[in-house]
């Protein structure tokens, strides 16, 4: 505002503060004709172009600058974890995956691993798919035992090789089908 700000009814912007809108594409005489301020050629001069939100003006984008970290095994066996301290909540003398589900220690089907966290004082016979060395030592010290169950083929990580297309391979498959 300029110096004459005493009367609120006569307020107006300072001189030079308000400019006319840039009218593009209105002919050469407007100063913004021909390319309509878009420059020559390129995606930005075309109609309908919108640059992606992650576009950084051509410099290497952040998702490519930051290094990738970690490793993910595609078909890894996912074990449901039971701690040695959780065994105190089970009342039966012999327990397995079904009893763990009934007691609410695990929520779904799958292979179970026994971890050595916590302590156990009562003897329990346990059937799990895998157990750590410390967990086995603690259960045996309390007078119990640990039985290792076989993994079901659905639970086991299976390495799948290339399919054989040779005639010998096809004959072998046909022979397996006949015997099954």
Task: Please explain how this structure is put together.
This protein has 180 residues and is α/β, with parallel strands linked by helices. The chain has a domain at 80-148: Ribosomal Protein L15, Chain: K, domain 2. The chain contains 4 helices and 6 strands; from the N terminus they run H-E-E-H-E-E-E-H-E-H. It has helices spanning 62-65, 97-103, 133-141, 167-179; strands at 80-83, 94-95, 112-115, 125-128, 130-131, 145-148. A 3-stranded parallel β-sheet has the order 1-3-5. A 3-stranded parallel β-sheet has the order 2-4-6. The longest helix is centred in the last third of the chain and has 13 residues, at 167-179. The chain is elongated and about 95 Å long. The model has no long low-confidence stretch (mean pLDDT 86).
Report the strand count.
Answer: 6
**Major sheet: arrangement of strands:** 1-3-5
**Helix-strand string:** HEEHEEEHEH
Query: Beta-strand level of the residues, as a percent range?
Result: 5-15%
Sketch the major β-sheet: 3 strands, parallel
CATH topology of one domain: Ribosomal Protein L15, Chain: K, domain 2
């Amino acid at each position: 505002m300029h110096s004459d700000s005493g009367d609120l009814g006569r307020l107006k912007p300072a001189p030079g503060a308000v400019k006319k809108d840039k009218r593009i594409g209105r002919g050469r005489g407007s100063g913004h004709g021909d390319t309509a301020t878009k420059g020559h050629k390129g995606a930005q001069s075309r109609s309908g172009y919108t640059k992606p939100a992650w576009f950084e003006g051509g410099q290497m984008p952040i998702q490519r600058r930051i290094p990738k970290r970690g490793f993910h095994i595609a078909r890894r066996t996912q074990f449901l974890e039971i701690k040695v301290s959780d065994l105190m909540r089970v009342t039966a003398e012999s327990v397995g995956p079904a009893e763990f589900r009934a007691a609410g220690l695990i929520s779904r089907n799958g292979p179970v691993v026994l971890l050595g966290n916590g302590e156990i004082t009562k003897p329990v016979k346990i059937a799990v798919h895998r157990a750590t060395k410390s967990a086995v030592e603690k259960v045996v010290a309390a007078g119990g035992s640990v039985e290792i169950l076989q993994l079901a083929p659905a639970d086991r990580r299976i390495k799948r090789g290339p399919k054989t297309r040779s005639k010998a391979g096809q004959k072998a498959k046909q022979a397996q089908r006949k015997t099954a």
